[in-house]
Design a protein that fits this description.
The chain contains ten helices and eight strands. By secondary structure, the protein is an alpha/beta fold. The chain has one domain (3-198): Aldolase class I (TIM Barrel, Alpha-Beta Barrel), CATH 3.20.20. The protein has an eight-stranded parallel beta barrel with strand order 1-2-3-4-5-6-7-8, surrounded by six helices. Helix 6 (115-124) links the parallel strand 5 and strand 6 (128-131). It is globular and about 40 Å long.
């Protein structure tokens, strides 16, 4: 897949804790069947060996449906499993270092929290940025102040690369988020905490498309 053709509309970020014992691969497959367009594997507190094992298995699912597969933070594992790319935070790998390891054809996304960071990421060659945190959320409890819609809109309008909004996005606020012009929404709990993951994904996608 050409990285310029990636559809960021409904971007799933995994969190096995939210699944409460349910199978990750099955959950991701259900989300894809419901309309998820990108999958990011996020694992914060496990060994590289276990991360690699999970990544290899999950990539089989995303490959089956030709869905872009992004690894959170770990550039080496992204390279080892031949993922579509990697997503890095402000305190993780330097963008130029990640690019040197992965090469020009891989996708590199960068988390940004303000317009200055977004412009630096764009200038540095990021393929997309994740903008957040938009609203308060349990999965990002370390933030001081959310960007909210006004902050999101400022960043979206100030850059020229694809971007996705993340943080506390649910059905009751997703329309406001989409109306800023962002290319997509990154979702965790609004998909993975639901009993019917496929239906939850379908519902979110219908909101995104304005149906």
């Amino acid at each position: 897949m050409n990285k310029k053709d990636i559809d960021y509309s409904l971007y799933l970020v995994t969190d096995r804790d939210i699944l409460k014992g349910r199978d990750l691969n099955k959950a991701v497959e259900e989300s894809i069947l419901g309309g998820v367009t990108v999958v990011q594997l996020r694992e914060k507190h496990i060994s590289d060996e276990e991360f690699l094992k999970i990544a290899k298995e999950l990539k089989k699912v995303t490959d089956k449906y030709s869905i872009p597969f992004i690894i959170n933070d770990n550039v080496e594992i992204a390279k080892l499993v031949d993922a579509t790319g990697v997503h890095i935070g402000q305190k993780d790998y330097k963008l130029d270092h990640a690019r040197k390891i992965l090469g020009k054809d891989k996708v590199i996304g960068v988390s940004v929290g303000n317009l200055e960071e977004a412009k630096l990421a764009q200038k540095g060659g990021a393929d997309y940025v994740g903008i957040g945190t938009i609203f308060f959320t349990a999965t990002k409890s370390d933030i001081n102040e959310p960007l909210e819609i006004k902050g999101l809109k400022k960043i979206v309008e100030g850059i020229d690369i694809p971007n996705v909004a993340i943080g506390g996005i649910h059905l009751n606020n997703i329309n406001q988020v989409i109306n800023t012009g962002t290319n997509g929404v990154a979702i965790v709990s609004e998909i993975l905490s639901k009993k019917d993951i496929k239906k939850a994904s379908e519902t979110l996608l219908s909101y995104i498309k304005g149906e």
